[in-house]
Amino acid sequence: MTQAQTEKVNLLGLSVEKLTAFFESLGEKRFRAVQVLKWIHQSGVDDFSQMTNVSKALREKLAEVAEIRAPEVLGQWDSSDGTRKWLIKVDGGSAIETVYIPDGERGTLCVSSQVGCSLDCSFCATGKQGFNRDLTAAEIIAQVWIACKSFGQLEPRGPRKVTNVVMMGMGEPLLNFDNVVDAMNLMMEDNAYGISKRRVTLSTSGVVPALDKLADVTDVSLAISLHAPNDELRNELVPINRKYPIAMLLDSAKRYIERMPDTHRKMTIEYTLMREVNDRPEHAEQLAELLRDVPVKINLIPFNPFELSDYQRVSNNALRRFQQILLDKGFTVTVRTTRGDDIAAACGQLAGTVNDRTRRAERYRNAAQAVRIVG
Ligand code: SAH
Ligand code: SF4
To answer: Which of 184, 191, 205, 270 is the most exposed, fewest CB within 10 Å of its CB?
Structure first.
């Protein structure tokens, strides 16, 4: 790539406000932003010459100073259950993963926010990969763009396949706050993807100061990755709990929900079940007590194994027992079915190729090898 190309402004990740400011800086009218936004996100166009309602002179000017650049797709896999996974190359020698999960009328896209993750939850493949960097807003929204394009959704009268987005791919979205907010706003923008705020979900392991700020800038749905009913166990599974313990996290999440304009909203509590770790009846009882006054629906996720992990999936019996205890206490409890297992696209299995800056991946591999030698 030439120097001139790298200096161009990439319009793909610009929110309406930023795109409007960009056109104003060129001395152009504000409405150009909406025109171009529609070309990019509703027609999938990445070449200014195709923007036929924009004057030729402006198209030429745009081609000189700007570009619409999505990262390269390295691979695309389809599971026998309809799940589709993309491996997407990002600058800096790493690759991230994005997954599409169809379910009846609903099609959910699981989007990544970072290359790897710095938080190192003990049961998560992404955490084990270490961390490289935040994704740009362009790289985040590009995942939606790439998925929609691959389904023909951005063509006139194309099918509407991506109906929901969950920020549950690689990374902790609240640690990449501004870029994630910009990208989510584009997902919900009528002149872009037009997905309703109820159908865009941010999932967090609990970065409380960032969660406290979230309601100032957005009102997407919220999922909290809890995984344990007490601090002692959660400290072990989700290390950020040592900094922001459960009570603090639930208070912050409650405040977020209370500020939502829609009074009936609930947060989702995600609870990954691992055999003999957090799946016992007393854990369910404790969880029910903890969440007694919190507006929640609970999503139980059977642990998905991956290479180098010591945990095991919950048994069906323990899963049903756990769910029943919560149902009996009046909670809404769903169980996330495992999808895309045959293409390693299940929750928590997304690893991508992280050019790790933390050397964590190396330490894990060495530790695992040592165990194998000793064992
Ligand atoms: N960092 C954010 C979002 C990405 S993780 C968060 O932690 O919420 C998305 C979800 O997958 C989280 O609930 C996470 O706990 C869960 N998860 C991680 N590893 C898993 C595994 N091996 N099996 C099942 N779920 C897993
Ligand atoms: Fe990061 Fe979420 Fe994985 Fe924890 S579960 S390591 S926060 S991606």
So the answer is: 191
Active site residue 24: no
Q: Say what the pTM is.
A: 0.92
Residue 28 · residue 36 · CB < 8 Å: no
What's the confidence (pLDDT) of residue 72? Answer: 94
**CATH of 72-365 among 3.40.190.10, 3.20.20.70, 3.30.70.3190, 3.40.50.40:** 3.20.20.70
| E-strand stretches of 158-277 | 164-167, 200-204, 221-225, 267-273
Beta-ladder partners of 67: 10
Contact 182, 127 (CB under 8 A): no
d(C-alpha 218, C-alpha 204), whole Å = 15
- Residue 73 has which token pair? 């797709």
Residue 364: per-residue pLDDT: 66
- Residues of the chain falling short of pLDDT 70: 1-6, 263, 345-353, 364-375
| CATH class of the structural domain 6-67 | mainly alpha
List where CATH 3.20.20.70 sits in the chain.
72-365
113 lines ligand 1 (CB under 6 A): no
pLDDT tens across 146-180, in order? 999 998 877 777 777 899 999 999 999 999 999 99
The alpha carbon of 37 is separated from its chain's Cα centroid by a whole number of angstroms, namely 22
- Centre of ligand 2 to C-alpha 122, Å, is 9
Amino acid residing at 287 = L
Would the CB of 201 count as within 6 Å of ligand 1?
no
Q: Where in the chain is the domain with CATH 1.10.150.530?
A: 6-67
Active-site hit among 97, 139, 172, 270: 97
Which string of DSSP letters, residue by residue, matches 213-241? HHHHH---EEEEE---SSHHHHHHHSGGG
Count of H helices and E strands in the chain? 13, 14
| Digit-coded pLDDT (tens) for 167-218 | 999 999 999 999 999 999 999 999 999 999 999 999 999 999 999 999 999 9
